[in-house]
Design a protein that fits this description.
Layout lengths: L3 H13 L2 H22 L5 H17 L1 H14 L3 E5 L2 H14 L4 E4 L3 H5 L2 H7 L3 E4 L2 H8 L16 H12 L7 H18 L2 E4 L3 E3 L4 E6 L3 H7 L3 E7 L3 E2 L5 H13 L6 E5 L13 E7 L3 H6 L14 H5 L1 H6 L10 H12 L1 H4 L1 H4 L6 H5 L6 H15 L3 H14 L2 H21 L8 H4 L12 H10 L7
Parallel strand pairs: 1-10, 2-3, 2-4, 4-7, 5-8, 7-10
Antiparallel strand pairs: 5-6, 6-9
Bound molecules: iron/sulfur cluster.
Length: 472
């Protein structure tokens, strides 16, 4: 049986061999970094803003029970039907039920990683509904039958030429590499879908407990149409998205835009607080909010890694990660890619099946440094490695470490073992990197380091003999 770890290794090996794609990604992310830094430079004090954001998220996550209750009761008071889904199955079943009760045929969707997490499109299509993604990037990957490559830039791996070819093939459009024309092709098709849709499905970037509102931030105006035009609006969000106060958005909206796309603020920022009220002329007749747990409460119970629930999904940690840049988004095989994906996926989908992602890191700490809410990402990767090891130690690692401890406690024996290692090391060269090499997976692409000619104890003794005690 092929494991998730093996799939990751195979996919990563494949992408690292695609030099053109990697160069294309580097150029794209290089451009993002310049814009991001320019916008970030306009903050009076970025590190104070970051500290404030981390403290607000800490408060929200550590008092989630209180803030969620406040949020839900305010929404329900205005006629929103709130459903708390324990897992992906419950969330999907609820949405399918709403669609069935209302005889929904066509569904339009705004970008939502939470719906990707619960594989909602697949379930809806299987149940006979037509589903259209309205975000341009999402629409492109939907036409290709792919998952998003990056949770902010879903189609970042595709060139204009590839998108043009896709549109010619799937939509019968004329060839063009002009981004504006390509956008217009998709927009013309999408306009009809908004009008025909019986249901609009969105995510939420933030939820405000104080006022009982969800906040959606976007650049294309598609989410506004998705939420306002169809008679039913279903919003799906993780329970960790709650912020205490409306004024918190004054910090978080620009921060998300700065780190997400390098903009000072995204073009459209909307707040939704319920279905159409008496006397209002527009808005959906029904508003359903699905609050997804899906093992987030397990993460909440883990005091050491709880801060990973602070994530605002800006994608900045992906953009600076040397692993993401070289293996690409699809290799991860997860909804959330890059460093934050490697931290939370083992919690959301099982530590033993997904622990390999925590090892796919150089631990350089670039992710932690860039994270606007100060999540200690690279240390959490280490925590996952440690937890996986404690939960299910590998037999050969147990023997290896037991042997190491045994030798370290016996200096005489340790010295003898060191000498023997140095004597027999040349033999390893005979099998280095071959199938006979017990370290093959490591030595296939690297030379095994030769033992030092002189141990530290020997070096120290020699220094003393030579009378060299000072600093060199
Ligand atoms: S972990 Fe931090 S940098 Fe990464 S997506 Fe979340 S908020 Fe952004």
């Amino acid at each position: 049986m092929i494991t998730f770890a093996k799939e990751f290794k195979n996919a990563a090996a494949h992408v690292t061999g695609q030099f053109e794609l990697r160069a294309f990604m580097r150029r794209a992310l290089g451009g993002y970094e310049v814009t991001r830094d320019k916008t970030r430079g306009k903050y009076q004090n970025w590190s104070d803003a970051r500290q404030a954001a981390a403290e607000i998220k800490w408060d929200a996550v550590n008092h989630l029970d209180r803030y969620l209750q406040e949020f839900i009761s305010k929404l329900e008071a205005r006629g929103t039907r709130v459903y708390v889904a324990a897992d992906a199955d419950h969330a999907r079943d609820y949405i399918l039920q709403v669609a069935k009760e209302n005889k929904v045929r066509s569904i339009i969707k705004a970008k939502s990683m939470t719906t990707e997490e619960i594989h909602l499109n697949h379930a809806l299509e299987k149940d006979g509904h037509s589903v259209f993604e309205s975000d341009l990037g999402e629409y492109i990957v939907q036409l290709r039958g792919e998952a998003p490559y990056h949770f902010v830039f879903p189609a970042m791996h595709l060139t204009r030429e590839q998108i043009s070819e896709l549109f010619q093939k799937e939509l019968g459009s004329a060839p063009t590499n002009d981004p504006e024309e390509l956008t217009m092709i998709a927009r013309r098709i999408m306009r009809d879908k908004y009008v025909q849709a019986d249901m609009g499905i969105s995510g939420a970037n933030f939820a405000v407990a104080e006022t009982g509102m969800i906040s959606i931030t976007e650049n294309e105006g598609n989410a506004r149409l998705t939420c306002a035009l169809p008679k039913i609006h279903v919003a799906v969000m993780g329970i960790e998205k709650v912020l205490p106060r409306l004024e918190d958005l004054a910090l978080f909206l620009p921060m998300l835009a700065t780190m997400g796309t390098g903009q000072a603020l995204t073009c459209y920022n909307s707040l939704y607080s319920g279905p159409r009220q008496p006397g209002e002329v527009d808005g959906p007749e029904q508003f359903h909010l699905v609050l997804l747990d899906n093992r987030r409460t397990e993460l909440l119970a883990d005091a050491e890694q709880r801060d990973s629930l602070h994530c605002i999904r800006c994608g900045a940690c992906l953009n600076v990660c040397p692993i993401f840049k070289n293996v690409g988004g699809h290799s991860y095989g997860t909804t959330y890619q890059g460093p934050i994906g490697s931290v939370i996926t083992p919690h959301l989908r099982g530590l033993q099946n997904w622990k390999h992602l925590s090892s796919a890191s150089s631990l350089c700490g670039a992710c932690t440094e860039v994270c606007p809410v100060g999540i200690d990402l690279h240390h959490h990767l280490l925590h996952n490695r440690r937890n996986a090891m404690h939960e299910k130690p590998l037999w050969w690692e147990k023997i290896l470490y037991a042997g190491f401890v045994f030798l370290m406690r016996r200096p005489g024996l340790y010295r003898v073992a060191g000498k023997l290692g140095a004597i027999f090391f040349p033999l390893h060269k005979l099998v280095n990197g071959t199938a006979l090499d017990p370290l093959q997976s490591w030595t296939k692409t690297r030379e095994f380091p030769a033992p030092a000619q002189e141990s530290f104890a020997e070096y120290w003794e020699r220094r003393k003999r030579e009378g060299n005690h000072g600093r060199q």
